[in-house]
Design goal:
single chain, alpha+beta, D-Maltodextrin-Binding Protein, domain 2, 2 domains, 7-stranded mixed sheet, 10 strands, 38% helix, 21% strand, globular, Transporter substrate-binding domain-containing protein
Length: 273
């Protein structure tokens, strides 16, 4: 009977220990945090033909998880609107999506000290058209339609406001898919399209065999960041250290070369907000 009691006590102790270890996410006491990334934003984050979530940000988050032993990072894929709503409601601790800083966002959320990406805005034109090398050259050119109040619309509008004697004709409308935009330039339906290059643009042009390339210099380079819930100062500090470590080890540059075909960290940031 004494042996049976001892056995029961040992079992109870093991059960309580297991319960204690399950709280907080792992045996090591690591905290579980959840990050949301976009589900169809190649090459940032997307589902491949095997059904696996992958992409630049996905592999970056996995690398961060490896150098942040105090946290277990759980990745969820959602659409961009759901990601931001989830951050607001506390469903997510931080989100990806190649996000810019701006005054409104900075008043509501936390950002890491170091950027983890860059949105490189380029002018795409026919490869045999050397007359277009900057926004100044888009006067009297047919620029592909842009979405009202979108980032490119705001960029072109700001240019026109600063250059009253050299106006770009901004056509509003549906821009179409990335492939459709480049095909319009290739066919001569548009003289140029202004858009980010870090959304798989070069890969699309190559796969379709289009006679399209970029102007000599990018129009604008904006730093992009993860966006963190306002009450997670602890997570921000941990991400700051981890991101800097990956940068020092060359991991950020390695992932950039893999997913963008170039080191986006070589670009000089032209604008923060």
């Amino acid at each position: 009977m004494k042996t049976l009691k001892t056995f029961i006590i040992v079992l109870a102790g093991l059960f309580l220990a297991a319960c204690g270890n399950s709280q907080g996410g792992s045996e090591s006491g690591a905290k579980t945090v959840t990050v949301a990334v976009e589900n169809a934003s190649k090459p940032l984050s997307f589902t491949d033909e095997k059904g696996n979530l992958t992409g630049y940000e996905v592999e970056l988050i996995q690398a961060l998880d490896e150098v942040m032993p105090e946290y277990n990072i759980n990745i969820e894929s959602v659409d961009s609107e759901a990601a931001q709503v989830g951050l607001e409601t506390g469903q997510y601790d931080f989100i990806g999506g190649g996000l810019y800083k701006n005054p409104e966002r900075e008043s509501m959320y936390l950002f890491p000290e170091k950027h983890t990406g860059a949105s490189v805005i380029e002018i795409y034109k026919r490869a045999d058209d050397d007359s277009i090398q900057s926004l100044d050259d888009l006067t009297n050119k047919k620029v592909h339609p842009v979405t009202p109040n979108g980032g490119i619309f705001n960029l072109l509008t700001a240019y026109n406001e600063a250059h009253p004697d050299n106006q770009i004709d901004i056509q509003l409308g549906e821009s179409g898919s990335f492939a459709e935009r480049f095909q319009a330039v290739d066919k001569g339906e548009s003289d140029a399209v202004v858009m980010p290059s870090n959304l798989g643009a070069d890969q699309i042009i190559e796969e379709l065999g289009l006679n399209v390339n970029t102007a000599d210099q990018p129009v604008q380079v904006k730093a992009t960041y993860f966006m963190i819930a306002p009450d997670r100062e602890d997570l921000k500090e941990a991400l700051d250290k981890a991101i800097q470590q990956l940068a020092d080890e060359g991991k950020l540059q390695e992932l950039s070369e893999k997913w963008y075909g170039k080191n986006i960290f070589d670009y000089e940031i032209s604008e923060e907000n």
